[in-house]
Automatic annotation (TrEMBL):
Origin species: Insulibacter thermoxylanivorax
Compartment(s) of residence: Membrane
Gene3D superfamilies, per the entry: 3.40.50.10960, membrane protein fhac
Protein name: POTRA domain-containing protein
InterPro entries assigned: FtsQ_DivIB, POTRA, POTRA_FtsQ_type
Listed GO CC annotations: plasma membrane
Pfam families: POTRA_1
Region annotated Disordered, chain positions: 278-299
Protein's GO biological process: cell division
Keywords: Cell cycle, Cell division, Cell membrane, Membrane, Transmembrane, Transmembrane helix
Keyword Ligase included in the entry's annotation: no
All copies of domain POTRA, residue ranges: 78-146
Length: 299
């Protein structure tokens, strides 16, 4: 019995040894695999922690920026603190501010200069408006009105300034010097507007001697006008021809004055010509009596 028990381990010895070695090898491989996986797991965990930290920092920064913006937009730095209007002559500051649609303490950054310019330029006598913003809180409105080209006298005897677009402005200063032509008898407003637009493009020096302009339409020339000079001449021309013909009348007048002709009609239509005023009857009679007296003296 004892002999047989001893023989069994002898027969199984090599197999058991292989099993043990295989088990030990597997244990070693498991340890090696585990040792290789640990750094990878650590890297994944580190990346996850880094992403979480960045997200948290971003959210904190966003939160503080939001708080700062809320504080800023509720402070005086985000509001309009002054509105300055420059260049206006006839339009009051109150009218311009009302047309602009902005007021003090409005949000500075919500104001659109382009929209303000459009609203102000809707005022009839304003030609152009430029709006600029200057931080903090300052708004500048630069106004250009249509230029003054002539005057009119109302039925009440008050002078009005006539601007380049044909609009009229009552002059509050009654002591104004009338240094531009006076328009009289203008019922056709479209023709009057054409005249004022034309006058705006003529230098003041060429209009200095013109005291009055009246409409004088005819079938051939619907836009014909009659101008009166301070040197007692009349000038007949048209609105269309005025920019060209206005350069001609001064030499004609100077030439007539040199010849002691103190008045007459200057026609500046298709042909430029001068027509002297007819002699008054008294002058003719006086010249006739003088001629008779001279004849008697000769006899």
């Amino acid at each position: 019995m004892s002999a047989s028990r001893l023989s069994v381990p002898a027969q199984q010895g090599p197999t058991a040894g292989m099993v043990i070695e295989l088990s030990q090898a597997m244990v070693v491989m498991d340890k090696m695999a585990a040792s290789q996986n640990i750094p990878a797991m650590r890297k994944v965990q580190a990346k996850t922690k880094s992403r979480s930290s960045r997200r948290l920092i971003f959210l904190l920064i966003l939160f503080f920026i939001t708080i700062l913006l809320l504080l800023f937009f509720h402070s005086s730095y985000s509001r309009i603190t002054s509105i300055e209007i420059l260049g206006q002559i006839y339009v009051s500051e109150e009218s311009i501010k009302e047309a602009s649609g902005i007021e003090l303490n409005d949000h500075f950054f919500l104001v659109s200069p382009e929209k303000i310019e459009e609203r102000i330029e809707a005022i009839e006598i304003i030609k152009d408006a430029v709006v600029t913003k200057q931080f903090p809180g300052r708004v500048f409105i630069d106004i250009e009105e249509y230029p003054e080209v002539a005057y009119e006298i109302t039925p009440e005897g008050r002078p009005e300034a006539i601007l380049a677009n044909g609009s009229a402005v009552i002059l509050t200063d009654q002591s104004v010097i009338i240094d531009k032509p006076i328009l009289s008898g203008w019922v056709d407003q479209e023709m009057k507007r054409r005249l004022t637009e034309t006058l705006a493009n003529i230098p003041d020096s060429l209009l200095a001697d013109i005291s009055e302009i009246k409409p004088n339409p005819s079938r051939s020339y619907p836009d014909k006008i009659m101008m009166y000079t301070r040197s007692f001449f009349q000038i007949e021309t048209t609105i269309e021809k005025l920019p060209e013909k206005i350069k001609v009348y001064r030499p004609i007048i100077e030439d007539q004055l040199e010849q002691n002709v103190n008045g007459g009609m200057i026609s500046l239509l298709e042909i430029d010509r001068f027509i002297p005023y007819p002699e008054p009857e008294e002058t003719k009679a006086d010249s006739g009596e003088g001629a008779e007296a001279q004849a008697e003296q000769r006899d």
